[in-house]
């Protein structure tokens, strides 16, 4: 029988609440063992449980839990926010083959007040973006059918992502799928009730959304040249 993740303890919620008020090394380092115990270790268990479900509908995206997890440490070299720690725990599931790392993915994050679930591709490199746009231009009817699925719309909503003001160079502005082609990201993204984090229902709610997104993620993944995939590290899937 597959193991069901029982949910995070309330200590996860308390840890992130306190971290938001004390986001500095002097506070975190003496309490790192609490992060490991109440946040990181349960997250590894949850990722393993989700992997067991991914085998059934997206086996190529099963990911080693240690590699799936994002580090808690922020990159403070860029931007104005110099706080050293992220205030959420996150994981991504990318295609197994090494040449596809950092491309299309399933992603989720958990914090004290938010659960995010995402699937797709975010800010790809220019050559990948061109490949995705060309794939969409040639197969837009398939994409429309995937996005129009009733359950997908109910669980994930509409296609999201930044987009250009006009059709990119080389594409017909009158193309019937120009709205899709203008995008720079192609994502389905939703937020769940934060209260689910401490319940056994968390795993099912995430997996249900991964399952309905699988045709969308696979559609995008078909567009990406395998030989170039290792060069494209994404914010969500790095």
Defining key terms:
238 residues, alpha+beta, four-stranded antiparallel β-sheet, single chain, 4 strands, disordered C terminus
Q: How would you characterize this protein structure?
A:
- This protein is α+β, with helices and mostly antiparallel strands and 238 residues long.
- The protein contains eight helices and four strands; from the N terminus they run ααααβββαααβα.
- A four-stranded antiparallel sheet has the order 1-2-3-4, with helices on one face.
- Helix 3 (32-57) packs across helix 8 and helix 5 (126-148) packs across helix 8.
- The longest helix is centred in the N-terminal third of the chain and has 26 residues, at 32-57.
- Mean pLDDT is 91; it is low at 97-102 and 227-238.
Q: What proportion of the residues is helical, as a percent range? A: 40-55%
- Number of helical segments with 4 or more residues: 8
Sketch the topology as an H/E string, one letter per element.
HHHHEEEHHHEH
Structural class: alpha+beta
Segments where pLDDT lies below 50 for 5+ residues? 97-102, 227-238
Please state the average pLDDT score: 91
What general outline do the C-alpha atoms trace? globular
Radius of gyration, CA atoms, in whole angstroms = 19 Å
Widest sheet: strand ordering: 1-2-3-4
Task: Report the portion of residues in β strands.
Answer: 5-15%
Ends distance: 32 Å
Largest sheet: 4 strands, antiparallel
Can you count the beta strands?
A: 4
Summarize, please:
This protein is α+β, with helices and mostly antiparallel strands and 238 residues long. The protein contains eight helices and four strands.
């Amino acid at each position: 029988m597959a193991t069901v993740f029982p949910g995070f303890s309330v200590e996860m919620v308390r840890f992130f609440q306190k971290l938001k008020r004390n986001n500095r090394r002097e506070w975190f380092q003496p309490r790192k063992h609490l992060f490991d115990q109440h946040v990181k270790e349960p997250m590894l268990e949850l990722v393993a449980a989700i992997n067991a479900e991914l085998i059934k509908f997206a086996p190529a995206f099963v990911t080693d839990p240690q590699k799936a997890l994002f580090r808690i440490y922020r990159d403070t070299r860029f931007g104005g926010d110099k706080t050293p720690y992220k205030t959420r725990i996150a994981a991504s599931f990318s295609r197994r083959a090494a040449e596809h790392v950092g491309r299309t993915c399933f992603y989720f994050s958990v914090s004290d007040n938010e659960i995010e679930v995402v699937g797709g591709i975010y800010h790809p490199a220019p050559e990948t973006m061109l490949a995705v746009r060309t794939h969409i231009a040639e197969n837009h009817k398939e994409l429309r059918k995937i996005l129009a699925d009733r359950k997908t719309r109910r669980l994930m909503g509409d296609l999201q992502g930044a987009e250009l003001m006009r059709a990119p160079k080389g594409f017909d502005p009158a193309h019937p799928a120009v709205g899709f082609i203008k995008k720079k990201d192609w994502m389905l993204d939703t937020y769940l009730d934060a209260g689910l984090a401490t319940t056994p229902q968390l795993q099912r709610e995430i997996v249900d959304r991964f399952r309905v997104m699988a045709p969308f993620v696979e559609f995008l993944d078909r567009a990406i040249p395998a030989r170039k995939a290792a060069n494209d590290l994404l914010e969500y899937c790095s």
